[in-house]
Specification:
The chain is 16% helix and 21% strand. It is built from four helices and twelve strands. The protein has a five-stranded mixed sheet, covered by helices on one side. A three-stranded antiparallel sheet has the order 10-11-12. It starts with a strand and ends in a 23-residue tail after the last strand.
């Protein structure tokens, strides 16, 4: 509410303010370092503020954050099987936790071995329902205490979890109209940093040669 200015009169204040309707003052800085120290958490090296939480402490930490006004935004699972740097365990679950008023954000990282379950945060935030199911479906991480842990994206008859690094992918080369093709084996090698080239060209044309593509990208007279 805007300030109301009254004329200077004896016994009156020049400016009055309705403090009951004042908006919440934003946090001076969206820094969560004090929060991390207050909860005695271990900060992880990451681009965004991230803490490492042991599975047995996850719900207690989440409950403390909820009591401070934080809400659960997202949950993802990560498979570090082919990661170039050593990690404590193969899998990690990341919970994105956000404060809607002062806009602070912190990520909770839980390291898990293959087959090790993660405590569900559904008892703390009901928003964990579908996002934990998605992580279970795509990465294969089970959440203890989830009321309805079943697939949410992939077909019921699909075996395995598509976002695991060892999940088999199709082996059919993709041929593009201009003659370029994508080989699945070379593509995977390139994504893993084992090979620079991801695509090639059929026939005599090779990348680097300065001449027109054969066959042409666009047929004469425009697209048919």
């Amino acid at each position: 509410m805007d300030k109301v200015t009254a004329p200077n009169m004896p016994g009156t204040s020049q400016t009055t303010t309705d403090t009951a309707t004042q908006p919440n003052t934003p946090h001076p800085a969206r820094d969560v370092s004090q929060l991390i120290q207050e909860l005695k958490l271990t900060e992880d090296h990451a681009a965004e503020p991230t803490v490492v939480v042991e599975p047995g402490e996850l719900r207690a930490v989440a409950q403390s954050l909820k009591e401070r006004g934080f809400m659960l935004m997202d949950c993802v699972g990560i498979d570090y099987l082919t990661y170039t740097e050593e990690r404590p365990k193969r899998f990690a679950v990341l919970y994105n936790v956000y404060h809607p008023r002062d806009h602070r954000r912190v990520f909770l990282r839980v390291w898990l071995d293959n087959g090790q379950p993660c405590p569900s945060l559904y008892p703390v935030w009901k928003a964990a329902n579908y996002i934990e199911r998605e992580t279970y479906d795509l990465v294969g991480i089970e959440f203890e205490g989830h009321p309805d842990l079943r697939k949410v994206l992939t077909p019921d008859d699909l075996e395995g979890h598509p976002l695991r690094r060892d999940f088999p992918i199709g082996e059919t080369p993709t041929l593009f109209r201009e003659g370029r093709f994508l080989d699945p084996h070379a593509f995977r090698a390139g994504m893993n940093g084992q090979q620079a080239g991801l695509t090639g060209w059929r026939g005599s044309l090779r990348r680097g040669e300065q001449r027109d593509i054969e066959p042409p990208v666009m047929p004469e007279g425009g697209p048919k």
